[in-house]
Amino acid sequence: MIHVGLSDYQSKNRAHITPQGQLATAPISYSTPVAREMSVVDTAYSFAIAKASRRIVITSLFLYANKGVGANDATVEIYETSSLESTTVDKSIIKVEMLKQTNLPLTGLNWVTNPGVFLNGKTDDATIFAVIGAYYISGNIDEDGLI
């Protein structure tokens, strides 16, 4: 039997083999779902708090516009910001129009935020039900990324 290991040349991080014999390439962690009922117009709803030098990885997003949404639809925005209750958008993650009684399920995502930001959402028409699945990673990523 030959012992073989796989590691990164620069960081010396080793690859992991699961108990099922799979080479673990992703996900890094398990997502935690956070549900919010966005029922007050132009109010910040927080989905993840800022952690110093940590990024938020969004793995899923589900939005539902209930029957109370008016004829002019609801604009829903999920965004990065600098404080828990801020409606100021530092960086928009997604901004969509939702018709009354429609849903938007997005799964299999691998969206990452900037380090040390809050992940908030807001709407201009009530009521939007939102669930975001996410986890934290260290703030270091490839500098050639699009962020």
SSE topology:
Layout: E1 16-17, E2 23-24, E3 32-38, E4 45-48, E5 54-65, E6 74-81, E7 91-98, E8 103-106, E9 111-112, E10 118-123, E11 128-138
Antiparallel strand pairs: 1-2, 3-11, 4-10, 5-8, 5-9, 5-11, 6-7, 6-10
Number of helices: 0
List the helices and strands in order. Answer: EEEEEEEEEEE
User: Hey, roughly how much beta strand do the residues contain?
Assistant: 35-45%
Q: Find the count of extended strands (DSSP E, 2+ residues).
A: 11
Distance between the first and last residues' Cα = 44 Å
| Major sheet attributes | 5 strands, antiparallel
Shape: elongated
Helical content band: under 10%
Mean pLDDT: 90
How big is the Rg? 19 Å
> Which spans have pLDDT < 50 for at least 5 consecutive residues?
143-147
What would you call the structural class?
Answer: mainly beta
Give a verbal description of the structure.
The protein has no helices and 11 strands. It has strands spanning 16-17, 23-24, 32-38, 45-48, 54-65, 74-81, 91-98, 103-106, 111-112, 118-123, 128-138. The strands form 3 sheets. Strands 3, 5, 8, 9 and 11 form a 5-stranded antiparallel sheet that branches. Mean pLDDT is 90; it is low at 143-147.
Short note summarizing the structure:
By secondary structure, the protein is an all-beta fold.
Output the keywords:
elongated; 147 residues; mainly beta; disordered C terminus; five-stranded antiparallel β-sheet; four-stranded antiparallel β-sheet
